[in-house]
Amino acid sequence: MDLGKGLNGKRILITGASSGIGAHFARVAARHGAHVALAARRTDRLEQLAGELVEMGAQSARPIELDVSDGASIHHCRAQAVEAFGGLDILVNNAGIAREGAALDQTAEDFDAVMDVNLRGVWLMAISCGRHWRDTGQPGVIVNIASILGLRVGSGVASYAVSKAGVVQMTKALALEFARHQVRVNALAPGYFETEINEGFFNTPAGEKMVGRVPMRRIGDLSELDGPFLLLASDASRYMTGAVIPVDGGHLVSSL
Ligand code: NDP
């Protein structure tokens, strides 16, 4: 097996590519010579990023408008990615939102919004790509972006934690069913990384306290996700499916 090839020539679709972790993974994939489809609602950002990616080494980069809370938009996005590259090798199911606040203060609309994007959107995208790979007989790879909050809990993010626990179990359930179609399904469970989803939080007293509970005493740098991401997205993990890998500075093993 040539591990050096990494993502070279691979066709990858990344949801939530307009900021944070998704935009970062798009740059990593570009540096490794992939064809990158960038999907999100803010297409102005995607277009700007697409230009950057080609200069960085992407074989090609295609911005695609996507709202993961809309099933038709998901189907259209997947079809556009396949059309643009003549096929698809990897899906990175990354789009996500959080609605913070005490569970008792959350509305039904808050709960539904989080589930629509973080759980239903991830499911529908995985199923759409899974059907494509089954119907074409091509192998595929799915990397779901879960969270350490899918494995343990924290205050003020209950609906988010519920949705991410669903992503963890979905990863295992789909890995079991998709293996016969040569489709691998794994997940990353990041700890805390500064992006728009948690903007400003790490400078608050609660944020500083939280960082103090991380065994490594700091939040992660996005570049520290690169190795685990490349492992799961590439053939380096070709005998792995149903795995959930935490990348969290030891946060999950913090002392009780
Ligand atoms: P950002 O807020 O920076 O990025 C979220 C992305 O999701 C954006 O690109 C946004 O694009 C997209 N998105 C949100 N709603 C939709 C929608 N309805 N349809 C399509 N795209 C949507 O946060 P992060 O980069 O941090 O988050 C990325 C993933 O990583 C999420 O799943 C998050 O839960 C997870 N994660 C993040 C951690 C962290 O510490 N940052 C820790 C653990 C997990 P747009 O608004 O343009 O549609």
Automatic annotation (TrEMBL):
EC number of this enzyme: 1.1.1.47
Residue ranges of every copy of the Ketoreductase domain listed in the record: 10-151
CDD domains from the UniProt entry: SDR_c
Single GO molecular function: glucose 1-dehydrogenase [NAD(P)+] activity
Sequence intervals crossing the membrane: none
Any single biological process term in GO: fatty acid elongation
InterPro entries xrefs: KR_dom, NAD(P)-bd_dom_sf, Sc_DH/Rdtase_CS, SDR_fam
Top EC class for this record: oxidoreductase
Pfam families cross-referenced by the UniProt entry: adh_short_C2 (PF13561)
Keyword set, alphabetical order: Oxidoreductase
UniProt-listed SMART domains: PKS_KR
Family under the similarity heading: Belongs to the short-chain dehydrogenases/reductases (SDR) family.
Protein name: Glucose 1-dehydrogenase
